[in-house]
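Here's my example:
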Amino acid sequence: MQKQAIADLIKKGLVALGMDPGPHLIDSFELYRAELQKWNKVHNITSITDDREIIIKHFLDSLLYLKALPAGKYILCDVGSGGGFPGLPIAMVSPDAEVALLEPSRKRVAFLRHMRRLLNLANVEIIDCKAEELVESEFDVVVTRATFSIADIMKKAGHLLKPGGFFVLSKGPRTEEELNELGSSIEPEIFRCALPFSDAERNLIKIIRGSK
């Protein structure tokens, strides 16, 4: 894609999600895309390599999480952040939020640190370990786009949430099946969202700690 076409798609995507597509934000996402492409050639940060797909399936898909997140200040942990999704786009559009990117892969941690410097994101912390290895942390929100089942991520990362904190998990066609595996004691809140410029739909599952 040409640079102007990339900028236009980012702008239209932000508008579709109800955000103000200021030039600084558009430039930041374009820089993120360019660096992801550059690093991906050497370090295989993500399997998605098409410019349009990166914008839709990484950037906009990550920003859908905002539909289930509170306004204002909160402390969020992105478990298995990989190339920064969904945590880094959330931090880019939510300067009042504090975002921890939890990632055990050294090459991806190096990329995340590089992006934090380039984008000057003072509200981002990068933690190079697995969720099971992180102790004495209390987050308001835990999110992930890693391929854990709902039951698995609750088991692996439930200890990261403070009392009253909650998970926000993005799920597709197997949502009902995974929720059934949790039992009737779980009372999730479900936000159904359409992914812009795509036929895909997402189910954002909000589960409060202690609801089990």
The radius of gyration is 16 Å. Helices lie at 3-16, 23-43, 51-63, 87-93, 106-119, 150-157, 175-182.
